[in-house]
Amino acid sequence: MRALLANRNLRFYIVGQTLSGVGSSALWLAVAIWVNAVTGSAAKAGLAMFAFGLSVIAGPLVGLVVDRVKRLPLLIWSNLVGIVLIAPLLLVDAKDALWAVLAIMFGYGVINRIVNSAQSALLTTIVPDDLLAGANGILRSLQESMRIIVPLLGAGLYTWMGIEAVVILDMATFLVAPLLFLLMKVNEPKPVPPEKGEKVTTAALAGFKYLFAHRILLAVMGGATIAALVFGFTEAGMFAVATEGLGQPSAFVGVMGMVQGAGSIVIGFLIGMFAKRLGEVWMVTIGLAGFGAAIFATITPLIPVVLAASFVAGLTLPMASVGAVTVLQRYTPSNLQGRVYSAADIAYTGALTASTGLGSLLIQLVHYKAMYAVALGVSVLGALIALLGRNAPIPPGSLADHEIHPAEKPAEKEGTETMEAAPEPA
Fold first, then answer.
1. 415: phi > 0 → left, psi -120 to 50 → alpha, else beta; which?
2. 77 and 115 co-located in one domain
3. 259 and 289 in one domain?
């Protein structure tokens, strides 16, 4: 932890990313509330949220852009473009021009995906390979903290001052974040140019090809994606847990969520230690199986047990997600970081979205305890699949490969001095 916080670039990176996330989380929910209020339609509010999520289809092109340019300048410009993109929300009438709101939310989603992919790739440049898991853990803790506070902040600010106040807040975070990124001093490698005659579609889909070509990535992301096919069941079932299982009002779901969030905050600062002792693959395995077991434990009719299980869920899910992201970063070459991250994001997000929709349907047909039993079984299956990557060979050219086989330096001749070439400025 001390080594991480001593990293000047990482400190600016963490604050910049956190600020950007604050604005995004606040605006995403507030726009949906605003659309619902002015149109009187929950379905149209859902469309606003769907438009944001639909940006996942731009994932391959997003990854390609991230890999073709330097990541730090891309982060700076993406945040500035975000300001211009959301500014029309100050003037648009959601009732008469809903199409404009939906278009803005789609573009806003694309900007967020560029930022997330570029940030993940940039982290591999500013943090040593052996500290990546710890850095991802800290970021996860801060994200969970914001996930508890920020949506309430956005909803409250909208109720108090209207959508304009939330938009201005997000524009401010989009402005401050690049100022912090400008303070970073990063020597990024020169982006690899496209091969002669290379098709855009081939280049954009290279992330998927790389994922399928290497066993450790295929096992870890395959296991996480399979588990995500049932993670969404909790979105539909948690209200049944509170009302049917515990006899509490539906608002008790908020208590369960806060307890889970507390677990996620705690584990984030310890993940670096677990990564060194267990390795990322074991972290993913334990995280997936542990989350499934914790969710299944919530079917008990005892409030203390349900809250304890919620806390364990908060501990285990970040272990899986941070472990998986770190595997992507460590076992991918620098010139493919953006595309591999985007490919994994498409697979995982797609599975999670599908499971949420399926869970909403099944909860009307099947008892939630049966759904949670299935969730446990599929989560354990995902954990076992992830474990298949434990002894997989390290992909050549990846960051982990460079760690095992560092570039050989030319031998120094006696009586002479050698000078390393100065790194290219960012």
1. left
2. yes
3. yes
Domain count, the chain: 2
- The residues, ordered by sequence, that sit 6+ positions from 394 with a Cβ below 8 Å of its Cβ are 216, 331, 400, 401, 404
Q: Which residue type does 295 have?
A: I
Looking at the structure, do residues 133 and 162 belong to the same domain, yes or no?
yes
Give the C-alpha separation, 199 to 197, whole Å: 6
- In the predicted model, is pLDDT for residue 406 greater than 90? no
Q: Examine residue 353 and state whether it is found in any structural domain, yes or no.
A: yes
Mean pLDDT for the stretch of residues 53-81? 92
User: 45 versus 301: which is more confidently predicted?
Assistant: 301
- Per the CB < 8 A criterion, the answer to whether 66 and 117 are in contact is yes
pLDDT value for 152: 65
| In a shared domain, residues 170 and 207 | no
Domain that residue 393 falls in: 202-401
Summarised one tens digit per residue, pLDDT across range 232-273 is 888 778 888 988 999 988 778 878 888 988 888 888 888 888
For residue 96, how many other CB atoms are within 10 A of its CB? 10
Q: Give CA–CA dist 175/167, Å, rounded.
A: 12
* Burial class of 115 by CB neighbour count within 10 A (0 to 12, 13 to 18, 19+): buried
- Would 408 be classed as within a structural domain? no
Give the CA distances from residue 261 to residues 142, 251, 289, in Å, rounded to whole numbers and listed in that order.
Answer: 10, 16, 18
**Contact indicator for 379, 351 with CB cutoff of 8 Å:** no
Q: Does residue 379 form part of some domain? A: yes
What is the C-alpha to C-alpha distance for residues 176 and 80, in angstroms, rounded to an integer? 10
- Tokens for 275, please give them: 């990564």
- What's residue 384's pLDDT? 97
Q: What percentage of the chain has pLDDT greater than the value 90?
A: 42
How far is 9 from 126, CA to CA, in rounded Å? 7
CA dist., res. 284 & res. 200, Å (int): 33
- Is residue 73 pLDDT above 70, yes or no? yes
One domain for residues 30 and 92: yes
Q: Which of 267, 27, 30, 320 is nearest to 145 (CA)?
A: 267
